[in-house]
Amino acid sequence: MPPPPAPAPADAKTKIALDVNGEPVEVAFAPHKTLLEVLREDLSLTGTKHGCELGECGTCTVRVDGMPVLSCLVLALACAGRRVRTVEGMAAGGKLHPLQDAFAELGAAQCGYCTPAFLLAAEALIAGNPRPDRDDIKRALSGNLCRCTGYIKIYEAVELAAARMRGERAEPTPESLYGVR
Amino acid sequence: MASAERGLRVVGKALRKVDAAAKVTGTTKFADDLFLPRMLYAKLLRSPHAHARIRSIDTSQAAALAGVKAVLTGKDLPIPFGILPVSQDEHALALDKVRFVGDPVAAVAATTEETAAAALARIAVEYEPLRPVTDAGDALDHPEPRIHDYGDLGNVHKLIHLEFGDVEQGFQDADLVREDTFFFEGSTHLPMEQHAAVADWSADGKLTLWSSTQTPHYVHRALAKVLELTPARIRVVACPNGGGFGGKSDPFSHEIVAAKLAMVTGRPVKITLTREEVFYCHRGRHPTLMWVKTGVKQDGAITGMHFRSLLDGGGYGSYGVASTYYTGALQTVTYHVPRYKFQGARAFTNKPPCGPKRGHGTPQPRFALEVHLDKIAEQLGLDPAELRLKHLVPPNSITANWLRVGTMGLGRCIEKVVQGSGWKDKFRKLPTGKGIGLACSSYITGAGLPIYWNPMPHSGVQLKCDRGGGVTAFCGSTEIGQGSDSVLAAIVAEVLGLDPLDVAVVTGDTDLTPVDLGSYSSRVTLMTGNAAIQAAERAREIIARHAAAQLDVSPERVAFAEGRVFDVERPERGLTFADAVQLAEAAEGTVGTVGSYTPPPSPGKYRGAGVGPSPAYSYSACVAEVDVDPATGIVRVPKIWIAHDVGRAINAATVMGQIEGSVYMGLGEALMEEMAYRENRNVVHKIPSLLEYKSPTTLEMCDVVTYVVEDPDPNGPFGAKECGQGPLLPVPPAVANAVYDAVGVRIDEVPITPEKVFKALRRKEKGEPGRFGPAGFPDIAWPAPTRVPPPWEGGDGKAVPLTPGASPGTTRSRKPRARARGQ
User: Using one digit for the tens of pLDDT, what is the confidence trace for B292-328?
Assistant: First the structure.
C-alpha cells in the first residue's frame, strides 16, 4: 500500500473575531481546528480540558451564546461573532463565582480536571432554572463524567450556589462535610 | 504522637483544600497544559496484533516527511524496565515482539501532532503473527508459544502457595464446610485526564520530565536505567494528576519515549495519549477467577479457609506479582481465621497489562469472601450482620498470616450501617424485586515494605521557616486529587499553630523534594503525615527554645496556636510566629528541619510476607439497597449506606469525598464496568472509548449515607488511617447480596449485568440453581507450600521446613477450557 499523502500545510490560517469571556478577540488558526483546540492552543485558555475529543465525556464543556456545548465537537470557525464563556471568565475581580466558591467549600473538585466543565454546565442550568432540584441537576449534568467524586458533592455544591445566587443565606449541612457521626 | 494529645485546631476540620482555588478556576497546570517554546509533538505507533514477532521496521518514509524531527524504534531504547525489580519485562518500544493490541512499536516527533500522526502511517512494520493467549484459562492450556521467556511455568507468570496451619484439620473441626467459585471481571481506572508528558533536554546534559504520574520516584529510576543517565541529572516533576486511581503508577513507554526524543532533537517534546491509548496503557483490575472453601461452626466461627485465585495479567508484569499476593493477603484481617491456605496464580495473556486499580488485588477476593459468607450465614440460619459482628478480628492482634492489626473499628461500622439502613426490618422482608445486602472490608494504610527493598525512609519532608512567618513544606508526595497537598499543609499548620494557607507546599519534584514513594497503596496521609509531624516538631522545638528565652519561661510552657507563640499559662504573654522565627534565625541561622517515616517492621518473616503488612488497617461496612426488575434483569441501586473507620479524619470534607468517590467506583464495578475483548483470536479491545466503556453517570449514581468512624490508630498521624480505597471494596459484594435478597438468585461474578440476572432467573424458573457464575476452578500445578505456623501454634513468623516425603504439589490434569463462563 503506498503511504498516504502528506497532510495539507497547516499554515493556511483563517481569522475570526469573537467574544471570549466578555472581551473581543481576533484569532487566526487552521480551519479544521475545534473550539477546544483554539481555546487551548491559540488563546492559551487551558482551563478548558479534554477527556476524549469525541464528544463522550463532557470534560470540554464551555458556553457558546449561553448554551453549554462540547468544545471538542464545535469547529472554531462556527464561533465567529459569538460569545464564548470558559472557566477563566467565571471569577471576577479576584473573587470566585458562587459556583466556584461552593465547589471549593464542599470539596466538589477533587482532581479538578472535570471541574471547569461541570461549573459551566451548572451555570447554564441555573441561568435557566434558578431553583433546580436534585433531579434537575442530575439531568443537566448527565453528560459530564467525573471519576473522583461520585457526583454527590457536585450536586450539593450546585444546590448551595443556586441558593446563594437567589440571595438566600445557605450553608452546607454538617452531614455533608463531616458525615453522620 | 505527642501532638495528638493537644487540642486540635486544624486537624479534623472540613477546610478548603490548599489547591481548591486553583482547581475551581482552571489554573491548575496539568501535564498537557504545559507549552514550551519550540516544542515538538510525539505520537506512538502501536501494534495491531495481539501477539507477533517483529520481522522488520522501515521508518525511512516517515523520517523523510517534512516536519518530522526524529523517529525511534525499539533498538534505540533496548534496556528493559518495569515497576517491580522481578518484572523488568517492558521495553519503551517493542524490541522483537509485540504482546497486545496497542503495544508501542515506534515513535515520531514532529512540529505538529498532525504531522506526527501522518508520519506514523508511513512506518512499515512486518509482523509474524503468533498464537495469542486470550485469557488465564487459555494460558494454562497453552504453555506455548510463550509470551515471555521468564515466569514460573509456560505462560503462567507467578505461582504462590502459602499455608498457615493445617486447613484440612480446620475443615474436620467444622460443622459446615462450603465451597464457592467467583469471577471478578477486569475494569480500568478511566481517569478523566489522558496521560501526558513533556520532556526537556538542556545542552548541559540535564533532562526534565513533567508527567501525569502518581510515582515520580519510580519514573526517575526507570528513566535513569533506560536512558543510561545519572539520576542526579534527571528531574521528574509530577504534575497534579487529573485522576489516577492506580492507572498512573507505572513508568510508561510514552514517558521514556518523550525523554529520548527530547535528547535526540534537543527540543522540548510533548506527548498526550488519546483516550483509546489510555485503554491500552491500562494496568487496571485483574480479571480474577476465585475458589474459596471455608469451614465454620454452628455460630459462624471460621475453623479454616482455603482460597485460590487465578489472575489474567495481560501482556506484562507490571505490579502483577504484588497483585497476586494481594488476592490472598487480607482475607484474615476482618474475621478471625485460625487456619488459612492461599494458592494464587497469575497468567500472561495477550491483552493490555493489568496492575493496581483502587484496592489493588483485594476487591476481587473481598467480593468472593463477602458473598461466600452471605451464603454461609443463610445456610446456618444466622443474620449476616450478626455473624460478622460475632467473629471480628480483635484489635491489637496478629493474624494467621502474620499481619499486625492495630485499631479495628469494623464492629462500629457494621452497627452504623445496620442501624441507619433499617437492616433488621428489611433483610429478607422486602417485597420481591427489592433487596438489601451487607458486606464489609479492610484495606492497608500503605504497604509496609517499599517496592525496592532498602532500609531508607518511605517518605521525607523538609520544612523551611521564613522570617515573614510563612512555612514551606517540601515533600515528594503526589497530588492526584485525593488531597495530599492539603494533608501536608494541615499537619504542618497544626503542629506549628498556623493557618494551612500560611504553609506553602512544594511536592512531587525529584529536584526539589525529598523522596516520597508515591501516591499508591493509600500510603500518603500516614507516611508523609508522620514525616511532616517529625519535621514540624523539630522546627517547633527550635523556635520554642528561643521564644522561651524571650518570654523567660521554660520551653515546655511555650505553645503554638493561631499564628502566635506564647506562654501557655499566661496566653497574653507571647509573640507572633514570625517574630519567634526571627529570634530563632538570629540565634541559629536559617530555620529548616527534616522529618522522615519508615513503617514498623512486620512480624511475618516468610517469603511472600512482604505483601499485606501495613502500619494500620482501615475498615468499612456497607449496606446496599437494590431494585431488580425480574422481567429484564436490570438492577438499580437507589441507596448505599457506608461506614468507614478512618482512624481520624485529617480533613473531614476530603474524607467524605474519598468515601463517596470509592462508593461510586465500586458501584461502577458492581453493575457495569468491564474491560471486554472481542471473542475472536485477535484479542482486540471491544470498547476503547468513554461512551462504550460504561461507567456511572449522574443518572446511575446512588444516594450515599456516609458514617465516619474514628478509631485513632497509634501508628497514624493524629491517629489517621486510609480512606481512599477501602470504601470501594464492600460495594460489589453488598450489591450482589442485595440482588439475592431481592430475587433469590446468586450472581457470583461482577459486573452484575441484566443479562446475567435474567439468565439466573430463567434457570431458577426451570428448577435449576438460580445462579450465574463460573463453573469451577482449573487444576494448577501448584508448587510445594511455604508452611508458616500461625502465632497461636507457636510460630515465629518464619516458614518451617517441609516434612520429608511431603507431596511437592498436585499435578494438573488437562482440561479443554479452564474457565467455563456463564454456568
Answer: 999 999 999 999 999 999 999 999 999 999 999 999 9
Q: Do A147 and B189 touch (CB under 8 A)?
A: yes
B685: pLDDT confidence band, cut at 50, 70 and 90? confident
pLDDT in tens, B547-604: 999 999 999 999 999 999 999 999 999 999 999 999 999 999 999 999 999 999 999 9
Q: Which CATH entry fits the domain spanning B2-28+456-597: 3.30.365.10, 3.30.70.120, 3.30.420.40, 3.30.1340.30?
A: 3.30.365.10
* Every domain of chain B and the residues it spans: 2-28+456-597, 34-130+191-244+248-281, 156-188+284-449+605-759
Which residue in chain A has the smallest CA separation from B666? A150
B481: which chain A residues are within 8 Å (Cβ-Cβ)?
A: 110-113, 148
| Shortest alpha-carbon distance between residue A18 and chain B (Å) | 21
Amino acid at B134: T
Query: Does the pLDDT at position B1 exceed 50?
Result: no
Architecture of domain B34-130+191-244+248-281: Alpha-Beta Complex (3.90)
The pLDDT of residue A6 is: 58
Query: The C-alpha cell of B520 is what?
Result: 499508591
Helix and strand numbers, DSSP H then E, in chain A? 6, 5
Instruction: Tell me the pLDDT tens digit for each residue of B40-76.
Output: 999 999 999 999 999 999 999 999 999 999 999 999 9
In this complex, do B657 and A110 lie within 8 Å of one another by their Cβ atoms? yes
Q: Report CA B610 to chain centroid distance, whole Å.
A: 16
Residue among A50, A53, A138 whose CB faces B699 most closely: A138
pLDDT tens for each residue of B807-821:
444 434 333 333 333
Residue B411 near residue B176, CB atoms below 8 Å: no
Q: With contact defined as beta carbons under 8 Å apart, do B241 and B28 qualify?
A: no
Which chain A residue has its CA at the smallest distance from B657's CA?
A149
Chain A residues with CB under 8 Å of B701 CB are 150-152
Does the CB of B274 have a partner CB in chain A at under 8 Å?
A: yes
Strand B434-444 relative to strand B459-465, pairing: unpaired
Q: Is the pLDDT of residue B822 over 60?
A: no
Residue B806 has pLDDT above 60, yes or no: no
CB contact under 8 A, A96 and B25: yes
Judged by CB atoms closer than 8 Å, whether chains meet at A138 and B483 is answered as no
Strand, coil or helix: B60: helix
What's the CA gap between B506 and B495, in Å, rounded? 18
pTM: 0.96
Chain B nearest-CA distance from A19, in A, is 19
What's the mean pLDDT in B697-722? 97
What pLDDT is attached to residue B5?
46
- Class of the CATH-defined domain B156-188+284-449+605-759: alpha beta
CA B644 from centre of chain: 17
CA B530, CA B522: separation in Å to the nearest integer?
Answer: 14
Tell me which of A148, A154, A159 to substitute to probe the interface with B (most B C-beta atoms closer than 10 Å): A148
A50 DSSP 8-state letter:
-
ipTM of the complex: 0.96
Q: Do B697 and A152 touch (CB under 8 A)?
A: no
pLDDT over 80 (residue B207)? yes
**Which domains does chain A carry?**
14-87 (3.10.20.30), 98-167 (1.10.150.120)
Integer Cα distance of B557 and B559 in angstroms: 6
B642 CB neighbours in chain A (<8 A) are none
Do the chains contact at B705 and A51, CB–CB below 8 Å?
Answer: no
Closest CA to B239 of B283, B196, B191: B196
Q: Do domains B34-130+191-244+248-281 and B156-188+284-449+605-759 have the same CATH topology?
A: no
B 541-580: CB under 8 A from A: none
| Rg (alpha carbons) of chain A, rounded to whole number | 18
